[in-house]
Write a structure and sequence with these properties.
The protein has helices at residues 17-21, 23-30, 84-89, 102-106, 131-136, 164-171, 209-213, 265-269, 313-316, and strands at 50-51, 57-58, 72-75, 116-121, 127-130, 141-148, 153-163, 179-184, 204-208, 218-223, 226-227, 237-239, 252-258, 293-296, 303-305. By secondary structure, it is an alpha+beta fold. The chain has a domain at 65-76 and 110-297 and 306-320: Alpha-Beta Complex (Sulfite Oxidase, Chain A, domain 2). Strands 3, 6, 7, 10, 11, 12, 14 and 15 form an 8-stranded mixed sheet that branches. Strands 5-4-13-8-9 form a 5-stranded mixed sheet. It has a two-stranded antiparallel sheet with strand order 1-2. A hairpin with a 5-residue loop joins strand 1 (50-51) and strand 2. The longest helix has 8 residues, at 23-30. The protein is globular, with a radius of gyration of 19 Å. It starts with 16 loop residues before the first helix and ends in a 13-residue tail after the last helix.
């Protein structure tokens, strides 16, 4: 048997500690992601309570409301769409915990109504906008997008949302506004993950203005034709399909137009691992996970080659012409 010394090992060969600690979540996902009954950890759609690992119920999420005014459906991939149960029970939302089952387990206590989003910065129409007002600013569409996580797994999700460009145009940004910065809700009484120091809260993300205005960029308010569940970022979140999942900031409470590249949460946490642009690039491994291949969930075993820009390169690559995509990852 070959035994490697630490000096002989590449970072990609080392199992990340968090990945190892989440092995139970992975086993549950592979078993079906239906709130699997053996451990009772993941919540199944439609139950009255979410059950945590100890068997204690937490607050159930508010009921979903179907949308009746979705204008059109845009399908951007030939891959099969993941089930509702898979999409809503295996999530990254660190405000509720770092394990994949934590958001479904704890997010039910989050109050998402009433909800307003502050729009400010270098724009001519700042204000506090109710979620319903934001939805009316653009036509609701279903967008079937591939979602790629930096941990080298992917899903296909039927989001319901509005083009981010609709809200930006309504806010009327000034010429000096070259970036858009966003903040997540910071409410520790309802978001237990905020009691940890895994990140410097509140969570913040940002996009270059042309990225935010791109037709593929949406503010999602639902999935599978209904309003978002809390664990998926209710009531409004960002979806940018050619970037890694951590760029999709959830439960947005503020959108600000700024004139400099904003400092975002993951860049602040570890700039050598998480670049501002965070475009899916199989040739760059800023973190411990090898990005050249990915696992299309629910399978954890079958892998395929990762496409640059998550397969959306024909639509977005021109925005990065002349940019060193290894330096500016």
């Amino acid at each position: 048997m070959l035994i490697k010394k630490p000096a002989d090992m590449r970072p990609s060969e080392i199992t990340d500690e968090q990945l190892y600690l989440r092995r139970r979540d992975f086993m549950q996902l592979g078993a079906g992601l239906l709130g699997a009954t053996a451990g009772g950890v993941l919540a199944a759609c439609g139950r009255d309570a979410v059950v945590d690992a100890s068997g204690a119920p937490s607050v159930a999420p508010p009921p979903q409301t179907p949308f009746t005014d979705i204008k059109k459906r845009v399908v951007t991939t030939n891959d099969p769409v993941n089930t509702f149960e898979q999409i809503t029970s295996y999530n990254n939302f660190y405000e509720f915990g770092t394990n994949k089952g934590d958001p479904a387990r704890y997010a039910g206590q989050l109050k998402t109504s009433p909800w307003t989003v502050k729009i400010d910065g270098y724009c001519n129409k700042p204000g506090d906008y109710h979620i319903d007002d934001l939805i009316r600013m653009g036509d609701l569409e279903e967008r079937v997008y591939r979602h790629r996580c930096v941990e080298a797994w992917s899903m296909v999700i039927p989001w319901v949302g509005i083009p981010f460009a609709s809200i930006i145009k309504r806010a009327d940004p000034q010429p000096k506004a070259t970036f858009v910065q966003m903040w997540t809700l910071n409410r520790p009484s309802e978001m237990p993950g905020l009691r940890s120091d895994v990140l410097d809260w509140p969570y913040t993300e940002g996009l270059r203005m042309d990225e935010a205005m791109h037709p593929l960029t949406i503010l999602a308010v639902g999935l599978y034709g209904k309003t978002l569940l809390n664990q998926n970022g209710a009531p409004i979140r960002l979806v940018v399909p050619w970037k890694y999942g951590f760029k999709g900031i959830k439960s947005i409470v503020r959108i600000s137009f700024v004139d400099k590249m904003p400092k975002t949460s993951w860049v602040e946490e570890n700039p050598s691992w998480y670049g501002f642009y965070s475009n899916v690039n199989p040739n760059v491994n800023p973190v411990r996970w090898d990005q050249s291949h990915e696992k299309a969930l629910p399978s954890f075993f079958a892998t395929r080659k990762t496409e640059i820009f998550n397969g959306y390169g024909d639509q977005v690559a021109s925005m990065y012409a002349g940019l060193d995509l290894k330096k500016w990852f």
